[in-house]
Specification:
The structure is a homodimer. Chain A has about 400 residues and is α/β, with parallel strands linked by helices. Among the domains of chain A are: about 45 residues; about 200 residues, Rossmann fold (3-Layer(aba) Sandwich). Chain A contains 16 helices and 14 strands. In chain A, the strands form three sheets. A six-stranded mixed sheet of chain A has the order 4-5-13-10-11-12, sandwiched between helices. In chain A, strands 8-7-6-9 form a four-stranded parallel sheet, sandwiched between helices. In chain A, strands 2-1-3 form a three-stranded antiparallel sheet. In chain A, helix 4 packs across helix 5 and helix 13 crosses helix 14. Chain A is globular, with a radius of gyration of 21 Å. At the A-B interface, helix 3, helix 5, helix 6, strand 8 and helix 7 of A face helix 3, helix 5, helix 6, strand 8 and helix 7 of B.
Amino acid sequence: MENVTGYKCIQCGSEFNLDDIEYVCKKCSGNLQITYDYQFIKKNLKKSNFAESSDYSIWRYKDLLPVEDLSLKPVVHIGWTPLYKADKLGDHLGLKNLYIKDDGRNPSGSLKDRPGAIAVVKALERGEEAITCASTGNAASSLACLTAALGLKTIIFVPASAPVAKIAQLLVFGALVITVKDSYDDAFDLSIKATEKYGWYSRNSGFNSYTREGKKTCSYEICEQLGWECPDKVFVPVGDGNLISGMWKGFVDLYEIGFIDHLPQLISCQAENMDAINRAFKSDGVIRPVKGETIADSISISCPHDGDAALKAIKESGGFAISVSDEEIVHAIPELARETSVFGEPSGVAPFAALLRAIRTNKIKDDEKIVILMSGNGLKDIDSAMKSVKDPLTTSPDIKELEKIVSNGLV
Amino acid sequence: MENVTGYKCIQCGSEFNLDDIEYVCKKCSGNLQITYDYQFIKKNLKKSNFAESSDYSIWRYKDLLPVEDLSLKPVVHIGWTPLYKADKLGDHLGLKNLYIKDDGRNPSGSLKDRPGAIAVVKALERGEEAITCASTGNAASSLACLTAALGLKTIIFVPASAPVAKIAQLLVFGALVITVKDSYDDAFDLSIKATEKYGWYSRNSGFNSYTREGKKTCSYEICEQLGWECPDKVFVPVGDGNLISGMWKGFVDLYEIGFIDHLPQLISCQAENMDAINRAFKSDGVIRPVKGETIADSISISCPHDGDAALKAIKESGGFAISVSDEEIVHAIPELARETSVFGEPSGVAPFAALLRAIRTNKIKDDEKIVILMSGNGLKDIDSAMKSVKDPLTTSPDIKELEKIVSNGLV
């Protein structure tokens, strides 16, 4: 991989060769960032390469990815999800340049297929026979999806409370699923112990540095889909912090190779009961575990494993943090769907709920180019969706009964 | 629309101008087929047009579609779903050229976004203020999705038994949802009466002839994705018959304009308790209502409203009919997912179950180019998916408890 130079620790700044290390920093156990030779990439990669490329998937960005053997990629089509200009919603909110990135259109229904794909290629490049991850649900159901057709043994640790649709995906795709009593945080800890004990390759976010490299492809797509323009603000759902730091990495990569002329502000959108990163950002910058519950299961994380990288991303981007209530999240599901035709799961619509709060608190200018990142398909959590709507009307097949409904003004 | 010449009745063969008629044949009440001026299209449309097109959606085929004003199209991205070569599955089945078309990747999670899109454009071209449809679930949830961001009033009739995920989609997208006691067939009849009484534009399959025109885009994509080659056999899920007749129309269109050099055999895949079309095909060609139940709700239709067109498609293509049991369908969900990474709802995997039966009964040659059409995302029916799998394992966060699981050979 001529494009990659090595690792740099996010916490202590130590640098390492790729061969030196498996997961976290040898010196301080901090998370690592993959570093690139931007001069080398700049020489070989022009915008015209993309105009000529017919590969509309994350792999169109292979020159910016830490992978060697693309023949090992998962068989399903990942990425190049739609970026919609949300004109109806923008009109209602008084915003002229509002966009929504619908990452629920990925194969397993969430953005997690991006990081999963990179981790799977790395596992196969290393000749691993088994891959494992702990997950609130989406990272796991993605991994199970991606590995199914490849025949890579997959062991999943999820909290027993994960939505049934995500558990169903895991089981249907044939992963070995182990539900862990209590929380995601417990599942995470157990999966790390299992990786140490059994040698399974860990795809855990906030531990395996390659996941961030998959997530950053979402930023590449946003800029390319805007005609290589960078948005002014991006609203990102934040749980363990790996997504927002990955998104930031993507924008920085493009800036460093001269594809965009400025960087965006990243808005960290958390659920107010589970917002360890936002609390740290707003106070002394020290991440402390929080105790709470939220309907947004995908960002329900007490102790964020990539918190430091996330804080760095928010700060370096000049962004800010917004925490939203479960009530705001539940309302946001139909509101977003009815304005944009995009149906999101609770964590997926949290950035939209955060945008509404940002507008109410005058943090948005009407001509800014704003992207809401919608990270997960609403079909993944039907129970939560049903909390957001009223029951349907009911009739017998008799037109007279329908006439009563119509004449009562209900239709 | 210079490409369109008018309507032709599937039943009595009468021809009409587009302005003469709204829905069904004036003479015999049969369903209509849109007819095209293939010579005109041939003159203007070359394969090179597609090589140069950057519109990877159903609208890339606008020269073959009966729409005038593309500015009215739904905002979400429809079509150009992946066609995967299913090598792992093909190896296991002894088939060298097996493909799966994953139409669960459409915006609302099913193929129904294709016909819905055409119907929505026609409704808006006509200046309609309300659109309605009866549906087993997918056509409705698609219509609700597509109209949401357009602000077109949408009234939906579904059987009360529709899977909760589909009901949730309808409500979240803000359609007016009326559940009709008893069956889809009752919902269909009531919606037709409502169209007559209130003048709402009807998107009903097997009534509105434009739905077939959306469904045919799936055939265009299959051929283009195969490098403008036509498959030998296509396994199609069949409920009311509108999909298989639409698929046939698509292949015939391409054949008529010289884009493909032969036509495929279409295999009609129904649930054995609800297989009125297959029974007619295997006997005297007369469609009679059946009474039964099936887990495959999207193809659970007692009295198929486009049955004649479907029979014509099976016969003209030299195809055949396979009905599969609910047990085969349930088994097919994880079997397909584990071999191809594609998770389908029951009706979506019915064609795969039918392929397995076709292999067992020696109806398949190992070098044929075979496409399985997977029409709906598995996330749309989690209850059925859960019937197909075993419960997950469970542990406390204690590695010793995990060790017991591992040493028992369960992992």
